């Protein structure tokens, strides 16, 4: 499956947010995604339905006119649920 935000028609400074489904397994999960952006991209982990979450990855600035691949291992062994 995939999720996509096309921000090509939006003004600088506007934000978009994508949320994965809530998970409740205490385990390590692999999150893979591709990005193509001239701005900034941040990945957070939200635990137990709390606020925005803990930053686990970010990139900013121009990375050229190409797609980049990212693979993150997210380990959460203590919360009841996370997103």
UniProtKB/TrEMBL annotation:
Q: Which InterPro entries match?
A: ConA-like_dom_sf, MAM_dom, R-tyr_protein_phosphatases
Q: Where is the MAM domain?
A: 1-83
Q: Which key words are in the record?
A: Disulfide bond, Repeat
One Pfam entry for this protein is MAM
Q: Which residues form a coiled coil?
A: none
CDD domains given in the database record: MAM
Q: Which residues cross the membrane?
A: none
Q: Which domain of life is it from?
A: Eukaryota
* Name by which UniProt lists this protein: MAM domain-containing protein
Organism lineage string: Eukaryota, Metazoa, Chordata, Craniata, Vertebrata
């Amino acid at each position: 499956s995939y999720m996509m935000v096309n921000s090509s028609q939006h003004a600088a400074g506007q934000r978009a947010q994508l949320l994965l489904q809530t998970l409740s397994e205490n385990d390590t999960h692999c999150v893979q995604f591709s990005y193509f952006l001239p701005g900034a991209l941040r990945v957070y982990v939200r635990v137990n339905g709390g606020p925005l979450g803990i930053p686990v990855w970010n990139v900013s600035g121009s990375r050229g006119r190409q797609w980049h691949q990212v693979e993150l291992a997210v380990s959460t062994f203590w919360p009841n649920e996370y997103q």
